Amino acid sequence: MARDESLETIYISDSEPESDRHQLLPTVQIPLVNTQGGRPLSASSLSQYSDVLVIDSTDSEDLEDLEAQLKKICFQKKTNARSRHPISSLTPPASHVKTPRGSELQDDVLVLSSSEEETVPLGRTAHHGALNSNSPLKKAHNTSTRMPNHKGNVSRRNLNVQEKEVIKEQTRLQRDINKIVNDKKSTLKDFTVEVSRTFEDHPFIDCLKTKLAVHGCSIMLFDPPSLSEPLIRFRRQHIARYDNKLKEWIPVAHYHALEDLYVLLLSAATIALAVSEETLAETLSVLRSTHRLTARSQIFLMIDGLNAYYKHKRTPKVKRNAIETALAALQASEKCFIVQVEGSEDTAQWLFNITGDLGMFLLICEDVWGYESLPYRN
Predict the structure, then answer these.
(1) Which of 64, 70, 292, 341 is most exposed, with minimal Cβ within 10 Å?
(2) CA distance linking residue 72 with residue 88, whole number of Å
(3) Is 120 exposed, middle or buried (0-12, 13-18, 19+ CB in 10 A)?
(4) What pLDDT is stored for residue 247 in this prediction?
(5) Is 226 helix (H, G, I), strand (E, B) or coil?
(6) CATH placement of domain 179-373
(7) What are phi and psi of 75, to 5 degrees?
(8) Which CA distances in Å does 118 have to 111, 158, 179, 291?
């Protein structure tokens, strides 16, 4: 004796939560009519048929009309019998209907989708249980449609975090470079003292290295155009430039450049000989032309052991008054700075102090406050 069985149709929509779907959409019972005599099919005979209806809609406004029409639909096998309501009346535009290929044409598979996404293909073994809301098919579809949005949101969040970190780092750097420097020793790390190879074995080198290394400053030997040129110069690392309009320092890519300050280290005997031969001014003139110095370039004439030279008895000897007169004239004509040192320790300490003073000297002094405000100007 045949029993009347009904097939439960579950609406699938990824635009609403699972809990809301069961509350809002009623359960529709679609009777399955046997092709022989029009009698209802039993539940045990459902496995003989593979009629599958998949509804995938992301537009909740279409569900009411679709629900009303699905209540009257009866699915049958492909026989001469026709359903009372042709399926073609519900067929969406061709772009949304996916036709099974190959052997899948043997079973009736109707796929309705109102989304633009690729419909998940159904195999021959798909039955009524595949339409359950907890089925792997539904989970796979939800995952495939929602995962790109999740990744996009994560990417945008990461991008926003990176942008905020960059802005924060730039603000911190801007604040640091505009701080007023009160300790000249803290600027020594930006300098490299370049010493002529003439002084490679001079005693003051080791003493100066020891003093500078404590503050991250180093010494480098270089070959001047003239190997006998007793020259010392300073190279600084620049990290900012001064903007006259904004009145503040602007960060720039790091670069190194020579400071416009040069130290000419001569012994007392060399100075006495130059005074007697009247070649002292020529010595500085050669230095300017060789290194293309300008009128604003600063030159330190450092003389080692001059007081000891005055006290030592030797013949012939250039008198003290002659030396001091020549140095005063040289200082007035060449606008150089005269420094007298005694021994390697004193020489190293003076070079250490000059390096620190250069670190305190602002590059904007010359443009903003004038030429006279440069350090050691006479």
Answers:
(1) 292
(2) 14
(3) middle
(4) 84
(5) coil
(6) 3.40.50.10130
(7) -95, 135
(8) 11, 29, 60, 75
Dihedral sign, CA of 42, 48, 113, 88?
negative
CA dihedral for 327, 328, 333, 338, sign (positive or negative) = positive
* Average of per-residue pLDDT values in the chain: 71
Domain ranges, ordered by start, for the chain: 6-134, 142-177, 179-373
pTM for the model stands at: 0.54
For residue 213, the one-letter residue type is: A
- How far apart CA 191 and CA 212 sit, in angstroms, is 10
Residue 44, judged by CB atoms within 10 A of its CB (0-12, 13-18, 19+), counts as exposed
List pLDDT tens digits, range 28-60: 444 444 444 444 444 444 444 445 555 555 555
Measured on CA atoms in the order 172, 174, 175, 176, is the torsion positive or negative?
A: positive
- 3-state SS assignment for residue 296: coil
- Six-digit token string for 168: 């924060």
Reported as a single tens digit per residue, the pLDDT across 172-181 is: 877 877 877 7
CA 52/CA 46 separation, integer angstroms: 11
Neighbour tally for 333: CB within 10 Å? 10
Here the tokens at position 17 are 């939560």
Gap between the Cα atoms of 25 and 21, Å rounded: 6
Closest to 41 (Cα-Cα) out of 78, 86, 76, 83: 76
Helix ranges, the chain (H)? 18-24, 63-70, 136-177, 203-213, 268-277, 280-291, 306-311, 320-334, 343-360
Q: Tell me the per-residue pLDDT of 237-261, one tens digit each, with 9 for 90 and over.
A: 988 888 888 888 888 888 999 999 9
Classify residue 345 by its DSSP letter. H
Rounded percentage of the chain residues whose pLDDT exceeds 70: 53
CB of 108 closer than 8 Å to CB of 77: yes
